[in-house]
Amino acid sequence: MKKLLKFLSNGYLWLTMLFFYLPIVYVMVFSFNESKSLTRFTGFSLQWYKKMFESRSIREAIYYTLIIAVIATVVSTIVGTLTAIGLSKSNKVLRAIVLQINDIPMMNPDIVTAIGFMLLFTSLGVTKGFGTILLAHISFCIPYVILTVMPRLRQLDDNLAEAALDLGATPFQALTKVIIPQLKGSIISGALIAFTMSFDDFVISFFTSGPKVSNIAIYVYSSIKRINPTINALSTIIVVLVTTVLVIVNVVPMIRERKIRGAQK
Amino acid sequence: MKTFSKLTWPYIAWISAFVVLPMVLILLYAFTKEGNSIITLSFTLENFAKFFSDAIFPMVLWRSLKIAFFTTVICILIGYPAAYIIAEMSERKQAFAVLLITLPMWINMLIRTYSWKGILSYFKFDSQINVMVGMVYNFLPFMILQIHTSLSKLDRNLITAAKDLGADSIQTFLRVTLPLSMSGVISGITLVFLPAVSSFFIPKLLGGGEYVLIGNLIENYFISVGNWNYGSAISLIMALVIILSMYVTKKMDRKTGGEE
Known about the structure:
The structure holds two protein chains of two kinds.
Chain A: H1 2-30, H2 47-54, H3 56-88, H4 92-107, H5 110-123, H6 130-155, H7 158-166, H8 171-200, H9 203-208, H10 216-222, H11 230-264
Helix pairs in contact in A: 1-11, 2-11, 3-6, 3-8, 3-10, 6-8, 7-8
Chain B: H1 9-30, H2 46-53, H3 56-87, H4 91-102, H5 109-114, H6 116-120, H7 127-152, H8 156-164, H9 169-198, H10 201-206, H11 214-224, H12 228-256
């Protein structure tokens, strides 16, 4: 009975995983298809990869996705961290108000945030393009950084920064040498979340980009109307890259831990 | 230490410009006439009246709510057992299973949705089912992870105690495990229902063009038609409906004794 239950529950989990991975594997297989078809595999070919690397718009989309994600991450991490520190030292009312407004972009459906940006940029007469996407990305990333750093700040010992100031450190030194080093872990996870949010975003980019600037998601969305197997190739490359990075990030610490444990034995 | 509170100032300026002002603009557009410039504001309730008098839009809103509701229910039905099974595994295996579920989430949602196109073309489902498959696929990981978190935080002694006191497995589950994991289910609901209601690329990619949800309407009014006033009004109504349903869900959570 127990064995049967175990068998069933394992089977159930495998089925769930199959559901998650089947479409991804399917796209990867069909990226090597000779014909355009998404349903019949007619033969092996690398032509879609060749087409992909030759396509200027795909190269640009990858470039914009990465550069926007990197800049948005750096800026939102700096602003978010400083704001979180400032908030932890502000009075309760101000903190409550700022945190409440900080919640709006996270609670709002993406599309509402997106049209808000669109109305803002057009009302101000700003031409939509690289700058507007970047501003929007920075803007929706900051709240996540603040929310990741805030809990860690609450655990910090205020006396340490106080002591630094008493011992003659300037506020800037107290900030960079005492407070920020203690927040390192949460700043890194905040930055990671910001990067993922930016890298993954479609809706807000779609409404804030002009005709000249597309990221990967916008490219996929706009070329989906006709069957375009280069997207299969592009998807495959992204899946492989993301998986490699994640496996390295997750497995390397596991191996290191095992080695350390082995050495201790 | 007070000097550090100055660090908040730049961000206060930032959110005034990039969070508060956009929301004010949506409100302003929703309550003004089409083609209205900021200088000659003339307020109107026309956009809202149009919404309720039109036959299509309330129907589309209803359809979006319905499909989001069923997506959420399916995610709970599939996700709860999965999360439960994972929570019962050894710690090592749990970490691995969580990694396996998180991994696809790092791949762009659009690409993940697109990847269903091929497989779905074998089955001759109607657009509604196709869209629902896409939604469950995109949002199920959130549900599993939320429930798993609440289950793995659960105090094992409570289950042992229930069993010692003579409860069988089903009773233990229904009266101890399930109520204590409700907070995970509720936060899962928030993470599934909200994006499902407003999603517009999933119906566009998998619904075959003629299947329209509220998100598509908003997109149409902003991108193709260019009636921003009406588009803003629709967005406002959608946001209100979502806030209301979140409120009801939170109320339910308090009744079931969930935290936060």
